[in-house]
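Changelog note: in this version the structure field was regenerated for every chain. One regenerated record is shown below for reference.
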Amino acid sequence: MERLKPVDIVIVGGGFVGLTLAKEITARTSLSVVVLERGQPRKTSDYIDQMDELDHVQRLRMMQNPADETITHRHSERTSAIPVRQYGSFQPGTGVGGAGEHWGAISSRYYPDQFKLATVLREKYGTARLPENLAVQDWGVPYEELEPCYWRAEQLIGVSGKAGNLHGTRIEGGNVFEGPRSHEYPNPPHKLSYAPSVFRKAAAELGYHPYPVPTATLSQNYTNPDGISRPACAYCGYCARFGCMIGAKAQPTNILMPVLLKRKNFSVRTGCNVRRVLHKDGQAEGVSYLDDASAEMFQPASVVILASWIVNNARLLLLSKIGTQYDPATRKGTTGKNLTHQVVQSTRIFFDASLDTFMGSGGLGISISDFDGSQGVDGYPGVLRGGNIRVMTTGEGPIASFGAMPPGEVKSEWGSEWKKAALAWHDRSVVINSEGEHLAFRHNYMDLDPTYTDKYGDPLTRMTLDWTDHERAQGAMLTKVHGEIAKAMNVRSAGANSRLLERYTVTQYQSSHVNGGAIMGASPDTSVVNPWLQHWQIANLWVVGGSAFPQNGAGNPTLTILAITLRSADALVDRYLKHPGALA
């Protein structure tokens, strides 16, 4: 193993989390920072000639290659895990920018009660009425402390939206159920396309509270506090699973790398597969990695930060023998616990006229939160938490959208009759979609697979994950509301895909919002990292990102990930670097 020149801080992962940390640290200190990214470099100009639906949506060009490294999945400890050979339920990114390059840009905040959910549920229902295997935990940080970080994150990525709660005053037209915010969004909401406007009208007539989906695709030209200017969205329709060719969608390569590349104390190395965190006597000494020529390197550092995808963060801790593997039988150990995804339901609806759905933008749409969080759930037995309901027009390619038609339209799903109907109904449908909170349960966790390995011979991450009656009840509630709104919209409905909630499946896409495994909390007995995302056992090791979520909220987690990342950066720079040691 070749020993490299020591650096002050090494960051594993060059996505939103790693590059945001690097930007904050290099702006406020003279310390040397190196980011190790296993994928390849990316920049905005790369995307100009890459708007290819077959390449990006069907073949998933921007995602990790499961032939190199994947996960295994099983429903319970009583069943065998098998490798995921082709990504279905989630799609992890790779390369500089990570999933922040191909994300859909929805940028909503979590509700204040999400950060103290264990306390809230106990107070509302009593311990005896809660599911026996429920494992939700308080985050160790209240919404009020995160609110300034949310605002910084919204300015950084330039969120377009409409406030629904300014300083405690409810504002119609925004999300009136959100927590108090200190500022209006940096940019106004986008102009609406037809289908979301029909959804908004119907939802309002039913007594709900529709509002524009907050999104980090720009509704107007915008310059953020770092001086990074980006143009307004052109509504080209190539957004989710694509990199934005003009930079209207916030991506690490267009808002973070331009700043970082000007700093002499920053460097990024690509093609680096980090294999272990090396540590001794309670101190991290650096990381070992294989470079793009498969040569083994040791990068010494005074501070090590894991900022990769949640599965990789947990896996590196397990491979490095840091902390204690969670055991669901004894409920001891913390690494790998509280694995969560999201409860996703969708109902396809059909209009009488064409909708021009080939145009659109990530997050362009209308949502309601009348059944999100604790709202509206009391009338549905068995439901503790809900989810959002929305209609968006994000841009649909001709391959993925072709063949959608109302049920019973044709007798067969192939042949000339089907082709004729597919052409007749093309561009006449959208989806009412929901993402529900996923509560943590004791039987859902990650560990190292005892059988399957990656191409380097290291064990794969094994996910043990399945739905419970709570997720099925959530889905039933959300799809019932879908049907009511579809009826009010006076459109035809194909009904919901209820099979998604029979058992957790890795074969059908749900969302890429998988979280947990290195969760944060107020005690080392129940969490991997403290409320500042510093490892409880190794003070100079920080584990940052969605891996810290004790449970998963509804909607895209990226804004919350950025908020806790900024808070972690503050703690590292303003407290730890001045007085190294445990912060809690």
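Spot check on this record: The two ends are 35 Å apart (CA to CA). The domain at 1-158+250-342+437-466+511-584 is CATH 3.50.50.60 (FAD/NAD(P)-binding domain).
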